[in-house]
Design brief:
Largest sheet: 8 strands, mixed
Distance between the termini: 41 Å
Shape: globular
Number of strands: 8
Number of helices: 6
Strand content: 15-25%
Radius of gyration: 15 Å
Order of helices and strands: HEHEEEHEHEHEEH
Structural class: alpha+beta
Amino acid sequence: MRFPFIASLGLLTLVAGCSAAPKPLPSLTDSQAAGSPRTSASSLESERRPNQPLDFQVKRYPDNSAYDLKGDRGQVVLLDVWATWCEPCKDALPMYAALQKEYGPRGFKAYALNVDEDVRAIPPFLEEAKVEVPILLDANALVSERLLKVRLMPTTFLIDRKGVVRHVHEGFAEEFLQQFQTEIEALLAEPAP
């Protein structure tokens, strides 16, 4: 089995509790939007030193042009690792597009890093889920498995302006969005390198 986190997907789908349609982003001051995503940076620290910038290169979908994370230094980056067979991803990816629209003018970018072996599964998924964030391709899940140590789908990484992973969220539920917003606001408030 190429993806060790596939076995956990069924449990994640039950735990994640995604709704059928995305809703508008909650207000940062909305006290009813509770819930905190599971966050873990320890899996990354075992592979890299803390505060070390993340560095990888992959291809963009659909044109296979090169993407290098270093090119986004100075921006706050949300990197969501997903697959077409991941039900919670259908709800998460449109939400990240909403975050991109809200925070993009302030130096925020959102990307969706796909781990599917067959790229032919991507177009129908994108159409059904109404995905509007740039798609990156993780051939053979090398970045996801070896560098990022992804265990569940989706897993979302928030990367600061220096390229350092600051927050890791496994799974997805709409209640996570207030936490994402709080973290993004804090990262955007930090000075650019």
